[in-house]
Amino acid sequence: xxxxxxxxxxxxxxxxxxxxxxxxxxxxxxxxxxxxxxxxxxxxxxxxxxxxxxxxxxxxxxxxxxxxxxxxxxxxxxxxxxxxxxxxxxxxxxxxxxxxxxxxxxxxxxxxxxxxxxxxxxxxxxxxxxxxxxxxxxxxxxxxxxxxxxxxxxxx
Length: 156
Prior knowledge:
The protein is mostly helical. Helix content is 70%, strand content 0%. It has one domain (2-147).
């Protein structure tokens, strides 16, 4: 059941806000730079971002025993996989996809959309998600926060 809920949630939320709507904006916007070279640069951003979103969604189901949806969050704290490098890899994956749109289309509006989502994710994480995780997982989450950065992955 968590698989179906995750597919529906991620399909709606990320399907719309990370893929469909940005495409609609970027494909109709003015260009701020020539996209011939940058079109090729966009492919790894788009591909890696999509793989991160899928990988972490699977981890939410299998390891967390829940979904990425805020109304049905994981029951177990996930501290391995991509979550050992960043506490918010799904959001990082989404930002990589949005970066891909910027490079592919050279869209000025996509730069603004990207910056809006950086701010929106920061507010969502600090004011809603982290307090819920602290109250749900307590000391285990606090220790996790000491080891793993919120945004910029620590590779070593």
